[in-house]
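Today's session is about reading a structure prediction critically. Students often jump straight to the picture, but the first step is always the sequence itself: look for stretches that repeat, for charged clusters, for runs of hydrophobic residues. Only then move on to the predicted structure, which in these notes is written as discrete structure tokens rather than atom positions. Here is the chain we will use throughout the hour.
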Amino acid sequence: MDQPKPSQLPTAAESKPDSVPLTVRRFLTGDSIEEITHLLHRAYARQKAIGLDPLAGRQDYARTLDRVLNSECYLAFMDHEQDSQRIVGVVLLNEHEQVTFPDYFLREGVAHFAMFAVDPTLQAIGVGTRLLDTCTKRARELGNTQLALSMARPDAALLRYYQRRGYEQVQDWQWPYTNYVSLILARDI
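Below is the predicted structure for this chain, in token form.
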């Protein structure tokens, strides 16, 4: 599928999250697990390039499907004719895994998100903000007062991204399937 032309997309300097021509909705049965998986691999390639081994950066189609079906999965689509069916972002809310969770994720009133990714060619125009806003709204609807996440401790740029959005470190965590210690971050919603 063709990439959007740069002239068709707002730049980071001229876009606001609510002005980006974007649709965010829940995963539907006909949505492409293959496309989601390839998006994850592209989005997590920067972490792979610095020696990190995040699950989302290497998971196969079956693992993506399992994760999508064991959470509330939200997808972002650009509202351009040529892109209206192309998935440009993904996030999971309250994923249920067959591993031990960080204590903080298990607290009453805490929702968490994972597998957060935006197409690298469309970052910094508000796609991620819209996905996180969707998670925040849904977490509130479920009665939560905090939203938490897990991120690779060595990824300083990603930590700054979340800190700018009000997230603070609450715990360290080692997932059984990564080669790094993760930070658990949270913020009030």
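Discussion point for the tutorial: The beta strands are 22-26, 72-78, 87-93, 110-118, 146-152, 168-173, 182-188.
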